[in-house]
Prior knowledge:
Layout: H1 7-16, H2 32-38, H3 41-44, H4 48-64, H5 70-88, H6 101-113, H7 126-162, E1 167-172, E2 175-181, H8 182-207, E3 209-210, H9 226-232, E4 237-238, H10 242-247, H11 250-277, E5 284-285, H12 304-327, H13 342-364, E6 367-368, H14 370-377, H15 385-393, H16 398-415, H17 424-428, H18 437-442, H19 445-451, H20 460-485
Parallel strand pairs: 3-4
Antiparallel strand pairs: 1-2, 5-6
Helix pairs in contact: 4-5, 4-7, 4-9, 5-6, 7-8, 7-13, 7-20, 8-11, 8-20, 11-12, 11-13, 12-13, 15-16
Amino acid sequence: MKDSNxxxxxxxxxxxxxxxxxxxxxxxxxxxxxETFLASLPFDxxxxxxxxxxxxxxxRMLVKQGVLxxxxxxxxxxxxxxxxxELAEGIFPFDTAFEDIHMNVEKRLVEKIGMVxxxxxxxxxxxxxxxxxxHLYVKxxxxxxxxxxxxxxxxxxxxxxxxxxxxIPGYTHLxxxxxVLFSHxxxxxxxxxxxxxxxxxxxxxxxxxxPLGSGALSGSSFPLDREETARLLxxxxxxxxxxxxxxxxDFVVEYLGCASLLMMHLSRFCxxxxxxxxxxxxxxxxxxxFTTGSSMMPQKKNPDIPELVRGKTGRVYGNLLALLxxxxxxxxxxxxxxxEDKEPLFDTVDTIKxxxxxxxxxxxxxxxxxDNLQRVVGQDFSxxxxxxxxxxxxxxxxxxAHGIVGRLVxxxxxxxxxxxxxxxxxLANFHPLLDSEKTTQLLLPKNAVASxxxxxxxxxxxxxxxxxxxxxxxxxxxxxxxxxxxxxxxx
Length: 491
Ligand code: ARG
């Protein structure tokens, strides 16, 4: 294959026989297994449209700077437009002999428009090119994640409003602690997702930086206008150091970090759904469309979706750890190790998107077992703290009040009763202040809940206020997102 050695003949082989674009200094063809091992095409073809988008901007900038003639630029742009269409229609002829998506697009361009296609790569390296593609991709994904997060939050708000009157046991140590509004419990997840949205938006700011024009690592001798490329691609800022630009994958780590926290939140929620749907709790039932049966036990209705979300959380953490570990020993600047950034990223994107799409309808399918909830909240000791607070409000030091109520609990347990079944005389035996009509009222879950009126507390009045704040802060975050996503080059 290598017997014709003039530069022109070598160059022609690029399209003639699948030779490598970098084949110039090599004499022997590459080992097939090595080629397969090194190829990223099977997974990085997902960056195809970003690659074309980046090339279009690079080409326009080269024309503007007089590096390419207008005619050359037009040919390249037409070729790239055709490639974009082929990709969109799923008819682009991918070829693994050309290692990655960048070389595939370039090869296709040369096939289409001839050797002038080879001019596109002027002043560019795959190192700054792959970085650019990833930036464009992560930006797009953060924008899409934001929409999905908002949708899930909206469903939580709707459910919180719909079930406003429902009281459930609140837990610490998974022991019944104090009754709370079901809405209050749901809204706790709303705020976690609020922080997730904020976090992804913060990460967006650091993703919105343009690496192109850094060349392989040291910049370029061509008169590239990096601001122009950034403007065309709607980046807010430029990397100020070419070595940093081609080596940086912080933004991918951040995306995976944000995704890991999100998954942790969803996994905790799922754990609760799994508990709540168990016969032991029987708080809620998930719709048939979002549960599965057992192939052996006909009575089963399994919360498979929450379980799988909980299970997939480990895989998203694993992706984050894989990337951090891959990066930790790398000398500057680009190293082939960095090709390993893509699969963890893509896998995470797929995982969180599928989950965020499923979560809202799954939650909407949930039915509350109201009768059971009413029964369980009336049947425990979780309102006795109200008695201690009542004594403390009457001047008894809280420590003493706690002791008094503790003895009362012991007495009630020994009698095999519930606190709500104690007579006024029995209560009065523990402290004269308890000899009041009010004390039995205090023990009712409804009253206990209603009295926790502090800002952020579970009283209906406080939860309504919480809902208002949720709407207000969401609007503020929407505005911030719109501003950040509007993508103006900030000079
Ligand atoms: N496929 C490579 C990656 O994903 C593209 C950059 C390769 N650059 C290089 N000089 N080998 O990282």
